[in-house]
Inverse folding.
């Protein structure tokens, strides 16, 4: 099998897993998009349910405030009418006050002075008068307006024993406007159902379905759970994915349906587009593999012919293959042929390398001489360093061995011997660390000390050694605390004092401050 077919199989083997996993990823993405859309629908449904509950709650709160108005006890109904107008929650909301006989006393739908209707009491008027709290109805048809509405009724018992009925009516148009103000996508089918399953508002064909029962499957699911999602068929025969939320206390249901076709169409379109792209990618990679295989085959053949020419001692000529690796191989073959013809140049290169090695050897020898010189300098320095502590030890030993020496002098001499012995031990330790000495690195043992004590100890040791016999030395010191190496500081002070004794004329004075 030729190279180009091997490359084609390789491309297919490479692309096939990528296509498989890409399709799986797209499938997961499709499911994720559907889940995101469901979450969006659920959030919008819950928000709409909260808005309905909030608006009905505001109407109920306004009704309770009006029921406590002092204008009712004094029969100042004109004042009460102004309060009722201010308490409305929307233009579609009107407030009616009736006496125990069902005659209207206040009606905010009517203009001042306009006569009240002869009768407008609801069928359950007696039941409403005997209630103890606010009664919220489902969707009912008004006795006078003949339009669907929601009633909130509360009885008012006055101090004189009279009972009134205060009603706040919300037209179904108000809830219809609430759906419009929510600005939900036009393709969503949204419905509001009261506690008996009657349609209060609907985003599509409201005139046809408001006041009629909602879907049985949806309402039964809402009775079993406060919220959820299910697949239903609308009353128009459209397959929907419905999301519903039940409003507490009201037992109303807000349902939001998304067409099943709309839910699937976007993700299916993306899936089809991605599948087509994968097919094109596989076919394209197969064609590219065949084309690259043909180019590589030509490059292999040209390289084989060039190798045969080089075997006969001829210089091959190459054509650009535009394949970087083969072009590099051809360049290397040309270089090998040139190297064979330029043996003399290669021999000269070897000679230059030998000369470079000679120079390197000379540099190494010079370095060794420098290190030897450093060793001599170190030994000279060592002799200088050993001379001072040895002289102090010798003088202190002489004082300590004298029979006439006082105890304090002998104790001082022993202290000098101990300190200088430590000094010698430190120098010997540095001597053993030859490698660090040759590199100029000596370890310092840092400690907190008083520089005045160091100077005093060095002066005492020098005085004990008898080196002040020809000079008068006066020392004036003050405490000076530093962080340093005691032995090195003693060496520095000792060298300074030795130089002062050496270069100060006999009989002169040397003052240290």
């Amino acid at each position: 099998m030729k190279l180009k077919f091997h490359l084609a199989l390789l491309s297919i083997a490479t692309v096939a897993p990528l296509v498989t996993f890409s399709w799986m990823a797209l499938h997961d993405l499709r499911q994720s998009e559907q889940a995101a859309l469901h979450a969006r629908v659920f959030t919008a449904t819950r928000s709409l349910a909260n808005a309905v509950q909030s608006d009905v709650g505001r109407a109920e709160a306004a009704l309770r405030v009006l029921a406590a108005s002092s204008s009712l006890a004094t029969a100042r109904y004109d004042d009460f009418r102004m309060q009722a107008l201010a308490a409305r929650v929307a233009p579609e909301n009107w407030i009616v006050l009736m006496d125990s006989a069902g005659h209207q006393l206040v009606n905010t739908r009517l203009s001042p002075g306009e006569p009240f209707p002869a009768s407008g009491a609801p069928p359950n008027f007696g039941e409403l008068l005997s209630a103890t709290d606010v009664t919220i109805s489902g969707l009912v048809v008004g006795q006078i307006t003949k339009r669907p509405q929601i009633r909130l009724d509360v009885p008012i018992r006055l101090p004189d024993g009279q009972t009134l009925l205060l009603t706040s009516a919300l037209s179904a148009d108000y809830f219809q406007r609430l759906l419009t103000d929510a600005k939900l996508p036009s393709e969503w089918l949204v419905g509001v159902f009261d506690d008996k399953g009657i349609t209060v508002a609907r985003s599509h064909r409201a005139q046809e379905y408001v006041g009629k029962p909602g879907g049985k499957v949806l309402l039964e699911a809402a009775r079993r759970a406060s919220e959820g999602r299910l697949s239903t068929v609308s009353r128009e025969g459209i397959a929907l994915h419905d999301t519903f939320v039940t409003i507490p206390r009201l037992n109303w249901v807000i349902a939001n349906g998304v067409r099943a076709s709309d839910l699937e169409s976007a993700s299916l379109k993306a899936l089809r587009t991605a599948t087509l792209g994968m097919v094109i990618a596989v076919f394209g990679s197969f064609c590219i593999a065949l084309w690259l295989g043909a180019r590589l085959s030509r490059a292999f053949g040209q390289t084989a012919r060039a190798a045969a020419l080089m075997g006969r001692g001829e210089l091959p000529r190459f054509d650009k293959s535009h394949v970087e690796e083969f072009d590099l191989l051809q360049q290397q073959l040309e270089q090998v042929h040139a190297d064979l013809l330029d043996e003399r140049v290669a021999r000269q290169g070897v000679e230059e390398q030998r000369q470079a090695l000679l120079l390197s050897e000379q540099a190494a020898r010079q370095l060794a001489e420098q290190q030897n010189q450093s060793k001599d300098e170190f030994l000279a320095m060592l002799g200088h360093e050993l001379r001072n502590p040895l002289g102090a030890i010798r003088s202190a030993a002489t004082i300590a061995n004298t029979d006439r020496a006082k105890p304090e002098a002998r104790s001082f001499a022993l202290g000098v011997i101990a300190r200088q012995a430590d000094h010698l031990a430190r120098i010997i330790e540095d001597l053993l660390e030859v490698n660090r000495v040759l590199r100029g690195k000596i370890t310092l043992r840092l400690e907190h000390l008083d520089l005045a004590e160091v100077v005093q100890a060095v002066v005492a040791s020098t005085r004990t050694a008898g080196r002040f016999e020809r000079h008068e030395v006066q020392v004036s010191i003050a405490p000076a605390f530093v962080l340093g190496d005691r032995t090195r500081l003693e060496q520095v002070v000792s060298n300074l004092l030795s130089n002062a004794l050496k270069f100060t004329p006999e009989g002169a004075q040397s003052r240290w401050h």
Remarks:
- The two ends are 100 Å apart (CA to CA).
- Residues 71 and 169 are 21 Å apart (CA to CA).
- DSSP finds 14 helices and 14 strands in the chain.
- The chain has a mean pLDDT of 81.
